[in-house]
């Protein structure tokens, strides 16, 4: 038969709590806690286990235990009432908060509906403006429609002018964004008539959208103007390129002509060099011939001096023989022969002097001709250098263009 504390409790016996072992006290406390939680749905404060007595009606519990139990029960009852009052007040506070939350939820739903309506109006306005922007972009994609949309016209006297009458040369490449600082009030007033009343935030929002759309439109018009400016500049550059090509062709023809002239001048220079070489050779030959003539003249002078000496000796000899006419008569033929030889020698000397003067004149002429040809050669070389520099300058200017 089981004699544990649980058996004593099931049999209706009441034992002191400290009469059990530690494990039995833990089991007994757990059993009591489970039972009291089952029988105490309000979770009242529980009494300590060592102050309770479990009885089956036998009357073995002491009076002091009963009085303490009653006092504890009364205290727990009062505590329970206080807890109930506190819980009731908390419930009231929570209900008030729930009502406030419901009111806030209803107000937020109304505000959400209003914000949704505002957002829907903004979406429709933005869609309308985007549709306008798409149509504007499609128009800008076609050149003549873009010109008509931007107010660009072609006049006979001025050419292309914009909607303000400014000609193409006065167009600016930059977009003036200072005109978009203040939104256009008339535009959003017209949109407000289409989409209903607008508040201040919608006004600011739509004003910003309109400002952005207007800025994009003006930027597209400015781009169209830039395209026209670029086309005109391209046309001008093409004309400049064609003129440059014509100028290059003309310069090329001039260069070819100059090359031909230069070749002719080179050939002429080569021929002139050949002529100059021939002239130098002739001058050298003439100088050599003159040297030889001078040597011959010197030899002739020596011979003449020798002959003069001989003539003097002969003359002295003849003077010495004059006195002896008879001997002169015998030697008259020889004397005549000597005179003839002397006359011949004098004539030869005169001829040599004439030839010497003639050779000197020819040498002087050849030297003058040499100087003239040297000056002509220097002039031709200077012309060749000038033509070369001119060709270099023309080639450099052609490469720069």
From TrEMBL:
PROSITE patterns the record matches: PROKAR_LIPOPROTEIN
Residues annotated as coiled-coil are: 276-307, 349-390
Query: Which biological process, per GO, is one annotated for this protein?
Result: negative gravitropism
The question of whether Coiled coil is a record keyword is answered with yes
Any idea which UniProt keywords this protein has? Coiled coil
Judging by the UniProt lineage, the source's domain of life is Eukaryota
Name the UniProt record assigns to this protein = Uncharacterized protein
Q: What is the organism of origin for this protein?
A: Psophocarpus tetragonolobus
């Amino acid at each position: 038969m089981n004699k544990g504390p649980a058996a004593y409790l099931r049999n209706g016996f009441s034992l002191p709590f400290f009469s059990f072992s530690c494990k039995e006290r833990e089991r007994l406390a757990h059993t009591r806690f489970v039972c009291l939680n089952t029988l105490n749905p309000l979770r009242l404060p529980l009494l300590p286990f060592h102050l309770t007595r479990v009885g089956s009606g036998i009357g073995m519990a002491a009076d002091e235990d009963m009085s303490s139990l009653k006092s504890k029960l009364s205290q727990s009852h009062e505590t329970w009432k206080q807890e109930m009052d506190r819980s009731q007040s908390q419930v009231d506070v929570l209900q008030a908060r729930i009502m406030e939350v419901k009111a806030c939820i209803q107000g937020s739903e109304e505000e959400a509906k209003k914000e949704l309506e505002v957002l829907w109006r903004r979406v429709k306005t933005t869609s309308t403006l985007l549709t306008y922007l798409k149509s504007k972009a499609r128009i800008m994609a076609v050149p003549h429609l873009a010109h008509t949309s931007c107010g660009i016209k072609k006049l006979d006297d001025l050419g292309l002018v914009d909607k303000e009458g400014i000609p193409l040369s006065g167009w600016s490449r930059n977009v003036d964004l200072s005109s978009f600082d203040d939104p256009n009030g008339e535009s959003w007033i017209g949109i407000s008539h289409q989409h209903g009343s607008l508040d201040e935030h919608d006004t600011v929002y739509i004003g910003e959208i309109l400002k952005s759309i207007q800025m994009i439109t003006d930027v597209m018009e400015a781009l169209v103007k830039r395209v026209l400016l670029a086309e005109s500049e391209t046309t001008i550059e093409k004309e400049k390129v064609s003129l440059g090509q014509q100028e290059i062709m003309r310069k090329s023809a001039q260069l070819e002509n100059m090359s031909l002239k230069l070749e002719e001048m080179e050939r002429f220079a080569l021929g002139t060099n050949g002529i100059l070489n021939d002239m130098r050779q002739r001058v050298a030959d003439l100088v050599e011939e003159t040297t030889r003539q001078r040597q011959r003249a010197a030899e002739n002078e020596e011979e003449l001096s020798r002959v003069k000496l001989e003539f003097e000796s002969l003359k002295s000899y003849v003077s010495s023989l004059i006195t002896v006419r008879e001997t002169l008569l015998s030697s008259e033929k020889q004397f005549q022969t000597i005179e003839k030889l002397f006359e011949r020698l004098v004539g030869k000397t005169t001829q040599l002097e004439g030839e010497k003067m003639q050779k000197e004149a020819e040498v002087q002429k050849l030297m003058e001709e040499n100087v003239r040809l040297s000056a002509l050669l220097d002039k031709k070389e200077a012309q060749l250098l000038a033509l070369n520099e001119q060709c270099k300058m023309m080639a450099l200017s052609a490469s720069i263009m």
